[in-house]
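pipeline/complex-builder :: batch 7 item 3
reading input block
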Amino acid sequence: MQNISGEATQQERSSWMGVLARSRRQDIEDFWTEHGDYFAVEWLRKPHTGLVMVRGRAGGTGNPFNLGEMTVTRCAVRLANGIVGHGYVQGRDRRHAEFAAILDALLQQSDCRKDLLVRVIEPLRARQAELRVEGSRKAASTKVEFFTLVRGENAV
Amino acid sequence: MAYVAVKGGERAIINSHRLIAEERRGNPDLAELTISQISEQLGLSVDRVMNEGSIYDRDLAALALKQAQGDAVEAIFLLRAYRTTLPRIAVSKPIDTTRMTVRRRISATFKDIPGGQVLGPTYDYTHRLLDFALAAECGIGKPEAELADEPLDSVIPRVIDLFDGEGLIEADISENDEEVFDLTREPMSLPAGRDQRLQNLARGDEGFVLGLAYSTARGYGGAHPFVGELRLGEVIIEIVPEDLGFPIEIAEVTITECQMINQFRGTAEQPPQFTRGYGLTFGHCERKAMSMALVDRALRARELGEDVRYPAQDEGFVLPHTDSVEANGFVTHFKLPHYVDFQAELQLVRQLREQREADQAKEAAE
């Protein structure tokens, strides 16, 4: 099934799926302006919400333990040409998962990959990076700059 | 008799639902709270409910808070109940907190640490005076945070790791990545491994865990703790879906992590060193993360060869009592009808009294 998509490596797919999962649906709609034209051609798995158990490690580096669960919505679609796309997104927005799955399928086709990467994925990634940097700059403004006071009698 | 009483309660129950709905709404002349208002403006409440409700989903937690009229324990109950309706899709890879996008990070043990002391959003240095500006009718507008020229380093090392190699602080090394105890799948089992204890504490009631933590520092656990590091920020959640077979990032979640360092005098086998307690929570729950770390350390008494003398060190006492859903369920069930039980006890007490009187009369006669 994925022969047509032979060119997209797992790493590339993993990368755009991560961007789509972490984006807000509204942001995807902003960049993928033709989203309204796409509806799942064939559901291999209709969007449904489930839980992912999040694990931590004791002490940050030790044995894993179960911290708690988070909501995740997933689905799988097959395009008319047979390519299968998967969507895994944070939260309970089914449409978001559907967009992620369709885009995953479209991105696996070499003829439209580049265009979608440029128009949708990279801008989404840039927006995420921008938000991250902004948050980090705010945090950086609260960094303590220690200085040592010089006692009066020692001052010249 | 009891049956008749239950039948009679049906309409009263329905009407009490209507009454609580009206009370929850409050004065209808005022605007109704929206879920996003709760999630945005009562963020720390939402964080607590997500953490103890054990589901990371801000909107669900905000909805639960709205439905529970702001009662955190009731909201946590609602979230736990909702959880049972959802299937488990996957288990994440253990999160890597060194890759956190840090928003706050402090250490009470070292002043100069790589990455610096970053206060972030905290009430720690506020004066705790009521701010009437927040009550002003015109609102507070749009407060703006200061922006530094440069962001923080993208990887901020753990303070604990600064000691690496010296052995002054015990190392936490992964020995078993495969079998992880899961309280949502299997009942509590004692003696508990650290994985079970940490999951239990992460879900545990903040007030109870805080009280236990306090007790360890007040002489009921011999703790003399230092906050090695406290950090808050976003980490990436990664899973390997079965249908894909390769790892994908599915989310970014906010977490609070606390590394607590405790003195340890050593044993015949081990030289003196610092030992550790660990706290990890969803959202910004610093008090909880610190308390969790203290109680985690106290509960390690047995494995560290210390005497188990105090409540916080006794997992048989701590673990079965941390869960607010269970504790609340048990304590508040006493208000449900116990008419028949009580009748039986009433009869018994009457009988005992009659017997006592009869015995006394008999003694007097003799």
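note: Chain B has a mean pLDDT of 92.
queue -> next item
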